[in-house]
Amino acid sequence: MSRHNRSEENAQSSVALTIPQQAFDWYDEYAHGDIDRRTFMQRLATLGLAGLTLNAVAGALLPNYALAEQVSFNDPDIKASYLEFDAPQGHGKGRGYLVVPSGVSADKPAAGVLVAHENRGLNPYIEDVARRLAKVGYVAFAPDALYPLGGYPGNDDEGRAMQSTLERGKIEGDFVGAARMLKAHELTTDRLGMVGFCFGGYLTNQLAALLGGDIAAAVPYYGTPPQSDIGNIKAALQLHFAGLDTRVNGTWPDYEAALKAAQVEYTAFVYPDVNHGFHNDSTARYDEASAELAWQRTLEFFAQQLA
To answer: Environment class of residue 45 by beta-carbon count within 10 Å: exposed (0-12), middle (13-18) or buried (19+)?
Structure first.
């Protein structure tokens, strides 16, 4: 796939090489609501930044969604639209981004893949992930947890603040509604997959536990364990972890033990020396080699499990 703004991406990558690990750790705290933006910027200002300006470092760490488009919404191989769905266990109604491969029809359906976003709503990176999946043949659907509040507001700071006001159980209910809608859609087969990132990784684990056999394959990226019965998981799992992500990785030993006890089929991959969020190509946490390897493994896994 072609990437846009290559010169800008290379500039961001060169900045990332000189950013101290502590800055990435602080960004993780900021991105997960443990500190506010002002505190994050104040901490950055205390670092020796090897001649880089504070704005250059902050600009590399904060999302630049112009870098994240790998598949254009105008790509002739796909058709993208927004779709509402019923979510009786959530907020009653939900809305998401539906991307359908060309050639798919009710007479020639394809497997569906639900895409779960981070803790800030349906941003352009997640929409692009849905397009990437449709580009290789899946009917992809990415719900927006912020729909009850008017939808993703166009920037992550406000989106993060909005999502923090919603009940987690209601968000889960919205995604359950989305999963059931996608599985029953006339354009999809009865094989449903799910992939999610960060909070969406948690949602992927959680829906696998909530929905049992309704999900055939689940791929959480740096997601924490489900809060529901792990023994209810019937999906095959493929889990991806960032080597430097101590917060999420600390939850893995107990989760793995529970998966083994429940005899859940799973494979886990740890990518050394990369940060939480390494798949998100809109920030300096992105690691191209690890992201591409993880995505290749994801697509191979879906091809095996959703056929």
So the answer is: exposed
